[in-house]
Design brief:
The protein has 451 residues and is an alpha+beta fold. 33% of the residues lie in helices and 20% in strands. A hairpin with a 6-residue loop joins strand 2 and strand 3 (90-98).
Length: 451
């Protein structure tokens, strides 16, 4: 799972079979499945295939879609769209997604943080008590000036520059005095390294901080502008007439939706507007993303004046895209984090969710269906199951809700009914236990009611 739930993606794949060939479907499905194992092979997951599946499905709801249509050139565009409301309204487009990969390669903060967590874990110290702060060149930044850069070593130098004998001594002191705070600073101005690792036993979660290095400091020399140029070239090689467009999707690019004005950086919108001014043969650009907190689909359209004047029907059609968009599960940045996580092949679940209702003779307990099957399959221990549902205290939380099954059993109630509340757009369902009693199978005999 990534942007949409795995169940939703499978539904879209099934629907797209109406207008895609078997070979085209297989190629897209193979890309999705490779994403599930990319991180385990040291590769970077990519959301491009998922965006293609989603957008082909969305456009098919509003018109006729052709995928990789040949126009006689050497290229095969991703989308040829003919609007239902006006057969004379059509366009050809390529779909692409951009991510933070290039920025992370130059600023390997995540790699340093992961290595820190590994080394702390290997020493059996509490990982959540550690934080990493890396400085950067913020005082040098301005538009068309230097790029933002973190002051940290390359991964090949992590061991000798950071995780050396001084770091080992830092961990040894913590192991001897785990209740006290401590910090370890690496300052090497000549090597452009300035970072601090802090230890706080009361800290609830591990954390990291740094300046925003994923800025666009140059208007025409950046990943967005370069990708647009690449797609423009491919489209012009493929088609000689009709409107052409580029569909730019958020593939996990942290500043994709940023609207904050920054004296030292440009927005993605700034780059798109400049690109259209520089290349009048591209009629419009669509951008697709998902807002992080609300999970709202964000669609922006930017085109030339002549395109809007000649294609009012097509514009009206494009404005309906959000109405037929499938339900989304994650924003692209968190989607990439999920694919890089421990269980990329499993979608998000209701694990740990718990609903209870109590009556005189009947109790109801609702939990994740996937959590139950993992317990019964032996994939998780009873202790883990109890901790994550708040039945017993855990390292993360000392507060407990209590075990409703234990309480029901103590009161003589047994399972009377089990039902499933299906949620087709999610990757989990709720299982509802109805417990009724007292049941004489486990309770004292009683006199019958007088009536």
């Amino acid at each position: 799972m990534a942007i949409c739930s795995r169940r939703t993606l499978q539904r879209l794949i099934n629907e797209n079979a109406k207008f895609l060939t078997r070979k085209q479907l297989r190629t897209l499905v193979d890309k999705l499945n490779r994403n599930d194992v990319a991180a385990s092979k040291g590769q970077k997951p990519n959301l491009a295939a998922e965006w293609e599946i989603i957008l082909l499905n969305v456009f098919s709801k509003l018109g006729t879609v052709e995928y990789e249509r040949t126009f006689g050139g050497g290229r095969y565009p991703d989308l040829h769209f003919l609007a239902l409301n006006d057969p004379n309204q059509f366009f050809t487009a390529d779909i692409t997604a951009i991510s933070d990969n290039g920025y992370k390669g130059l600023n390997p903060f995540d790699a340093l943080f992961d290595e820190l967590m590994k080394r702390v874990g290997d020493r059996s110290l509490r990982q959540h008590s550690f934080s990493l702060q890396v400085e950067g060149n913020y005082e040098e930044l301005y538009r068309e000036g230097p790029r933002a850069k973190l002051k940290l070593p390359s991964p090949s130098r992590f061991k000798d520059a950071v995780f050396n004998q001084d770091f080992d001594a830092f961990l040894e002191n913590i192991a001897r005095s785990p209740n006290g705070e401590a910090n370890y600073r690496v300052l090497k101005p000549d090597e452009n390294i300035d970072l601090t690792i802090e230890y706080d036993p009361k800290q609830p979660f591990a954390s990291g901080a740094h300046i925003s290095y994923k800025k666009i400091s140059k208007l025409t020399d950046n990943i967005v502008y370069s990708r647009l140029q690449e797609k423009r070239t491919q489209l012009l090689e493929a088609i000689s007439e009709g409107p052409i467009a580029i569909i730019l999707c958020d593939g996990g690019f942290e500043i994709f939706n940023s609207t904050m004005r920054d004296f030292a950086a440009y927005s993605v919108s700034d780059v798109i507007k400049q690109f259209l001014l520089d290349h009048c043969d591209v009629d419009f650009i669509l951008t697709f993303s998902v807002e992080q907190t609300s999970k709202r689909v964000l669609i922006q359209r930017c085109g030339t004046n002549s395109f809007y004047q000649k294609n009012s029907g097509l514009v009206q059609c494009l404005d309906k895209l959000v109405e037929v968009f499938p339900e989304v599960e994650m924003d692209p940045v968190n989607a990439i984090n999920h694919l890089n996580g421990a269980n990329p092949r499993c979608g998000r679940s209701y694990w740990g969710g718990l609903k209870m209702s109590a009556g005189n003779k009947v109790n109801s307990v609702t939990i994740s269906a996937r959590a139950l099957i993992e317990l019964l399959a032996g994939k998780v221990s009873q202790k883990d199951f109890f901790e994550r549902h708040g039945f017993i205290p855990s390292e993360m939380s000392q507060s407990v809700t209590g075990n409703p099954f234990e309480g029901s059993f103590r009161d003589g109630r047994l399972i009377d009914e089990i039902s499933i509340n299906k949620t087709p757009a999610k990757d989990d369902d709720w299982i509802v236990f109805t417990l009724r009693g007292p049941d004489p199978a486990i309770s004292p005999f009683v006199l019958p009611d007088k009536d």
